[in-house]
Amino acid sequence: MQPQQQHGEVVSSMRAYRRLALAGEYGEARREVERAKRVLRGLVDAETSRERRRKLAVALDELGAEEKLIVALGAEVAGIPRQQQGHAVAAAAAVAAAAVREARPDPAVWPPPTAPNPNKFAAGPGSHNRRQPPRVPRKTPVPIQQGRKKHEPPARRRSSSKYSEFARERGLPDVELVETIERDIVEHGIKVAWDDIAELKEAKQLLQEAVVLPLWMPDFFKGIRRPWKGVLLFGPPGTGKTLLAKAVAAECKTTFFNVSATTLSSKWRGESEKMVRLLFEMARFHAPSTIFFDEIDALAGQRGGDNEHEASRRIKTTLLAQMDGVESADDSDKRVIVLAATNCPWDIDEALRRRLEKRVYIPLPSRVARVALFRINMKDVEVEDDVNLEDLADRTEGYSGADLANVCRDAAMMSVRRIMDAARAKGFSSSQIKQELVANQNKLSAAVSGDDFLRALAKVHPSVGQTDLDRFDKWATEFGAS
Basic residues bias: where (predicted)? Predict the structure, then answer.
């Protein structure tokens, strides 16, 4: 159906709806409203112009409000005795017609004159016909216990749980970009606990002091104890930097914004800067919230390079300006926490490095941490009693947390490989191998042995070299702030 035909269908449905509503046929009128809403939704989805799409969305909201009015009138008339329903329908129709006329006055018609108020300039005794100033009603004092709580969220959040709904209600621009951020960046219901992260006691303690405690005790963290604006987690890949950021968000019960360079990139000029600005506006709306920039070196590298693009420089400038606007609010419910992680801290711009006041080195797991990581990764898999985790920890010196997870995953797959290798040796086809796997469910769930781990270690090697580790140590000594 062409857009013009769809517009005509909406107009005809609305005319039929108003005619039926004035006649008291609320059931039929509601069906016409639903038909018009259905067509309007299709127009909104198919519209490419942002301004026209916004206007169509406003019209759709108005239809929803009129539908609620029809439902309320129908319910009210249904509760009136049958012999009185005729008068009730006429009265309701008059009220509805008056509401429509009042809501949409004709700009070509002047409003009716207002009746003069004889008491407007009435003179009292001794007033000499002077106009008295209007009296301001005194407000009744409200007890402190009945007033607004200190940490109660802003009133706007009661009507709109999402920033996109709030923006659409206020008619704000760039609602589509806001919906993109909500879909791709915002994460809710994070369930990462501190116990899910092996060791890293110093990093956990610092994050609790810098982020968690100021939210718990906002009255204490003031003045020179004010919370840090930003925290940078740097170190080799696969050491748990993202898990630490999610654990902070879960501990503080904040809205978590997981940002990467790809989610903020756009081919349209100026759109990436808008997304950065909208990201911080949404974080303030959902405060207390946590913005986590993963691989921030890809988003805010050194400025002034030969290969730097103009769009990249604009994004960095906008990001730095927005981070300057994230102040440590006195109310903990209005705080925005900025966390960042990188595997290349030496590539970060100096201005951004200054704004990330805490810079914490997340090293490779120690021997004790490696034993704990083996236990965490294999907690849902049966392991034979002869497996010596301490010996495995000694054999995995220089492995990252991600490397150890790969070792455990490879060892847990050994039982499947044994069955498949035996089936292939017998010349089974793919369908026969599938039947063989289904028939040997008990063998698939066999306990992981020490030999399985040794075979996995022979395949999985460390992903971080000694040269990179020396470079991390040097940067931590020079710029670390833990």
Answer: 128-138, 147-160
